[in-house]
Amino acid sequence: MRVVVAPDKFKGSLSAPEVAAHLAIGLTRAAPGTEVVQVPVADGGDGTLDAAVSAGYRRVPVSAQGPTGEPVGTAYAERDGVAVVEMADVSGLRRLPGGRPAARTASSHGTGEVVRAALDAGCRRIVLGIGGSASTDGGAGLVQALGGRLLDAGGREVGRGGAVLAAVASLDLSGLHPALREAEVVVASDVDNPLLGPRGAAAVYGPQKGASPDDVVELDAALARWAEAVRVATGIDVADRPGAGAAGGVGFAAMATLGAALRPGIDLVLDLVGFRAALPGADLVVTGEGSLDEQTLHGKAPAGVAAAARGLDVPAVAVAGRSLLTPADLAPTGIGAAYALTDIEPDPARCMSEAGPLLERLAGLVAADWLTDDDEERSRDTTSRVRGERSRPPLPQR
């Protein structure tokens, strides 16, 4: 039997490569002789760098500014002139000092510094994962780090953060990094929000980053001022384009000033890590993430992995720390069954602290259901399996 293991991270517990490794241990222990191919994945947010490195990309350390200006050690992943940049690792919520939100002042500048470092090193394809951002600055910091100048009415450069964009009168792109003329920039994003208005970056995502109702009004007005300056400087208007509001408006700046294309995060990552190339000959795909919930159904990693597997008629199952979805919820995604740590360990704290060993046990249940003909083994621990009915397909004939 051949199994492709392609999980996302279990946030706060295990990275995607760690999840894959524990699943591989559990599967081979329960079904000796099984070939397990580990392909950790991500959806463009936290863990994108880890997924790329696990797929053979080289981690290149970079020192850059965090969302509020403090220096952070981050990296990009590189292979054959392609650089993978993870915004969450440099300008993300988890990089906020003490976890304190900075809705008005957080900047995407550090992300631009990492992109600049990759361009300086000769990379000419930039894959930018923008999930998990801490800023609502319309991507202005990204543009500043790459050589753009934001000027007020007196010709002075403005500072960083979303609130200061209210002072922007013009944008000078003459100093933009010259390599961008020939580089391809692709942004991994799963949201379709515009930059402005009730579905815009400030209104929808600002409160998640600590913005008060008054802050949202201020930030939306400042982003409108920024959008007008960009329109005048570039001659194009992408503020209403789906995805412009991604990552506090980084999607807008990337499209308008860098000529970036936006692609669904999981699709882009699956291409990067060679997931589809691993599918031919597979008997089963095991995917998963920390929580299977409503968000899973809208472009998160497990749904994307299952969709790709279904395209080649390979059955897929999911593992999770917890599952809030019924079999009926999961059926349209192509996920044939879900297995949760909380089904074998009711204490959430132990599910977090002992996730690795518990995943190995859970993988044994997957193997019993999908990889063996041992009826006695399948009959054990039935109360710990996924809620609801599911049918196990016949084992493939070799």
From TrEMBL:
InterPro entries: Glyc_kinase_flavodox-like_fold (IPR018193), Glycerate_kinase (IPR004381), Glycerate_kinase_RE-like (IPR018197), Glycerate_kinase_sf (IPR036129)
Region Disordered: start-end pairs: 372-398
Keyword Transferase: yes
Family of this protein: Belongs to the glycerate kinase type-1 family.
Protein name from the UniProt record: Glycerate kinase
Highest classification ranks of the organism: Bacteria, Bacillati, Actinomycetota, Actinomycetes, Geodermatophilales
SUPFAM superfamilies per UniProt: Glycerate kinase I (SSF110738)
GO MF entry, a single one: glycerate kinase activity
GO BP, one annotated term: organic acid phosphorylation
Biased composition (Basic and acidic residues): 377-392
Taxonomy, superkingdom: Bacteria
Record keywords: Kinase, Transferase
